[in-house]
């Protein structure tokens, strides 16, 4: 392997080839500290040509490559295995914004750009880059596209796939595919861009992208409302969809149990709503017209919701800092869970028409079969996307509880998801965590087609092997 490392130094400056344990360590464990691997080296290329040359060398020596962005993914996709024979290819040095095209309303950028930096850069030019998620201070555009990330603005603007118009990708052969075109229509055969988006580094390495921009809204109103049942929360969503149409930009749900965990670890984050409602919903309206227009619309819809009994309490944020506090409360649930210790995540989508039934039935089954568990259920209700996470009963050792119960708990939830015609991965992807789950729930024909694609695009199986599908 020393020979391979020597060869690498012909295509990449040695200071960007990390082989010492202390240098590699920060790249080996994922954000949740759930997966740790070993790596022959961590490589930090600075441009697509360097990525291509690295891939060619790896292909010649049969060395597997694990592409990596901010390493915030929840499914262990960017963590190497334990063999110590894989290389990590981290894109962080490729962080240039190539162009903001105002007339075309697009931004062209490299894969290693941090999401928050992109939002800020767009805002300075009067544009909104709508992709937004709790990890935005560290996740990268390449990782967002490779996982087809969702977040809190999907309801109005779509997920990473919907925001992407073109890609630059290094293939498993080390060729550079230049699909960096900001076109909203292009029917020239198969959609290669869509193939690479959401492929989690298993089909190609994304090095750059063209993404859509939108005009920056001038007014935003955020409110927290209390609902007694999930059915009322869904009816409320439908009411907002009907009355506010495209002005509705956020609709997030948090159960009381989720917020209790939040308050336990972040006592400053108390729910301003009265009497600990079973379901707290965060709603955001955005507009390009005057502040008054949106505020009036919001008040009218809330009045209607009160009158029809859909909500029992509401607080409208009176200023930006209060609106931010509402959003922080929502976003801190993930952090509270991390503080609490190991938990079992389920990132699922259910058709909204079946969601009420799913929650009632699954809660009841879960509490009967696993007494004392805490159901930390929250998420992007507007997209039918629940983070139906399970924390062990108070007083139990999370590690021991999860060792015994992880498999049956996943099976219970996924059987319910299947019954409701949902998906076992809404926005976090598959990685290594859900490899078996995908095999079991994708359906045989779809799973075989995925393997056919993987074999065709990466016949040597060097791009992120044993993630998403095993061939
Ligand atoms: P990484 O974790 O580094 O990689 C993820 C996958 O993409 C891996 O399989 C990796 O091999 C592959 N990959 C990375 N870069 C490339 C590339 N350039 N080319 C090819 N493959 C590549 N996710 C959501 O969807 N919605 C949320 O609301 C959300 N909230 C979160 C909140 C917190 C606090 C945290 C920690 C995470 C959250 N996530 C969320 C998950 C995570 O942030 C996203 O999956 C994000 O898109 C991952 O980006 P990354 O750069 O960290 O990718
Ligand atoms: C979020 O929406 O906050 C994350 O995707 C959820 C999670 O931690 O499961
Ligand atoms: Zn989420």
Summarize the structure.
It contains 16 helices and 18 strands.
Protein model, in words:
It contains 16 helices and 18 strands. α10 packs across α12 (320-340) and α13 (352-369) packs antiparallel against α14 (398-419). It has helices spanning 2-8, 21-24, 48-61, 115-124, 141-147, 154-157, 160-163, 192-196, 230-244, 256-265, 291-307, 320-340, 352-369, 398-419, 435-441, 444-457, and strands spanning 17-18, 41-43, 65-68, 87-90, 97-101, 106-110, 127-128, 164-170, 176-179, 205-212, 214-215, 219-227, 248-255, 279-287, 313-316, 347-349, 374-380, 385-391. Among the domains are: 97-215, Uridine Diphospho-n-acetylenolpyruvylglucosamine Reductase, domain 3 (2-Layer Sandwich); 219-339, Alpha-Beta Plaits, CATH 3.30.70; 341-419, Alpha-Beta Plaits, CATH 3.30.70. β8 (164-170) and β9 (176-179) form a beta hairpin. With 471 residues, the chain is an alpha+beta fold. A 7-stranded antiparallel beta sheet has the order 15-12-14-13-17-18-16, sandwiched between helices. A 5-stranded antiparallel beta sheet has the order 5-6-10-8-9. It has a 4-stranded mixed beta sheet with strand order 1-2-4-3. Bound molecules: flavin-adenine dinucleotide, D-malate and zinc ion. Flavin-adenine dinucleotide is lined by residues 31, 66-74, 77-78, 91, 111, 133-135, 139-140, 142-144, 146-147, 149-151, 200-201, 205-206, 334, 427-428, 431, 464, 467.
Layout of helices and strands:
Elements: H1 2-8, E1 17-18, H2 21-24, E2 41-43, H3 48-61, E3 65-68, E4 87-90, E5 97-101, E6 106-110, H4 115-124, E7 127-128, H5 141-147, H6 154-157, H7 160-163, E8 164-170, E9 176-179, H8 192-196, E10 205-212, E11 214-215, E12 219-227, H9 230-244, E13 248-255, H10 256-265, E14 279-287, H11 291-307, E15 313-316, H12 320-340, E16 347-349, H13 352-369, E17 374-380, E18 385-391, H14 398-419, H15 435-441, H16 444-457
Parallel strand pairs: 2-4, 3-4
Antiparallel strand pairs: 1-2, 5-6, 6-10, 7-11, 8-9, 8-10, 12-14, 12-15, 13-14, 13-17, 16-18, 17-18
Helix pairs in contact: 9-11, 10-12, 13-14
The structure holds flavin-adenine dinucleotide, D-malate and zinc ion (ZN).
D-malate binds at residues 134, 331, 334, 345, 347, 379, 387, 389.
């Amino acid at each position: 392997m020393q020979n391979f490392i020597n060869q690498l130094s012909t295509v990449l400056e040695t200071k960007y080839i990390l082989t010492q344990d202390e240098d590699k360590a920060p790249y080996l464990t994922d954000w949740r500290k759930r997966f740790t691997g070993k790596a022959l080296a961590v490589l930090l290329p600075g441009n697509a040509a360097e990525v291509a040359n690295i891939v060619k060398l790896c292909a010649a020596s049969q060395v597997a490559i694990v592409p990596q962005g901010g390493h915030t993914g929840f499914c262990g996709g960017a963590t190497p295995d334990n063999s110590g024979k894989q290389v990590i290819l981290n894109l962080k040095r490729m962080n240039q914004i190539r162009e903001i095209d105002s007339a075309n309303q697009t931004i062209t950028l490299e894969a290693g750009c941090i999401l928050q930096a992109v939002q800020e850069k767009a805002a300075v030019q009067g544009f909104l880059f709508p992709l937004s998620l709790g990890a935005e201070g560290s996740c990268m555009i390449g990782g967002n596209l490779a996982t087809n990330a969702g977040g809190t603005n999907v309801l109005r603007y779509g997920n990473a796939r919907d925001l992407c118009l073109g890609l630059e990708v290094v293939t498993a052969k080390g060729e550079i595919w230049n699909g960096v075109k900001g076109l909203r229509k292009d029917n020239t055969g198969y959609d290669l861009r869509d193939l690479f988006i959401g492929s989690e580094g298993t089909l190609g390495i994304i090095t750059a992208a063209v993404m859509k921009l939108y005009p920056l809204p001038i007014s935003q109103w955020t409110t927290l409302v209390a609902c007694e049942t999930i059915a009322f929360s869904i009816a409320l969503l439908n009411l907002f969809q009907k009355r506010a149409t495209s002005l509705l930009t956020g609709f997030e749900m948090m159960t009381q149990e989720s917020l209790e965990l939040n308050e336990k670890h972040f006592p400053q984050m108390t729910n301003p709503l009265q009497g600990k409602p079973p379901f707290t919903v965060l709603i955001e309206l955005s507009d390009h017209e005057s502040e008054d227009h949106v505020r009036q619309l919001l008040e009218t819809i809330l009045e209607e919701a009160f009158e029809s009994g859909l909500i029992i309490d509401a607080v409208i944020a009176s200023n930006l800092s209060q609106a931010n506090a509402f959003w922080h409360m929502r976003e801190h649930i993930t952090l509270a869970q991390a503080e609490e210790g190991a938990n079992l995540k389920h990132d699922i989508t259910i058709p909204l028409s079946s969601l009420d039934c799913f929650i009632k039935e699954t809660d009841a089954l879960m509490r009967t079969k696993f007494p004392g568990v805490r159901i930390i259920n929250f998420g992007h209700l507007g997209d039918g996307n629940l983070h139906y996470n399970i924390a062990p009963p108070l007083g139990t050792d999370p590690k021991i509880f999860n060792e015994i119960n992880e498999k049956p708990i996943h099976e219970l939830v996924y059987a319910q998801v299947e019954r409701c015609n949902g998906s076992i991965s809404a926005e976090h992807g598959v990685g290594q965590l859900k490899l078996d789950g995908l095999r079991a729930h994708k359906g045989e024909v779809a799973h075989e087609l995925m393997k056919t694609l993987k074999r065709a695009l990466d016949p040597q199986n060097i791009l992120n092997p044993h993630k998403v599908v095993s061939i």
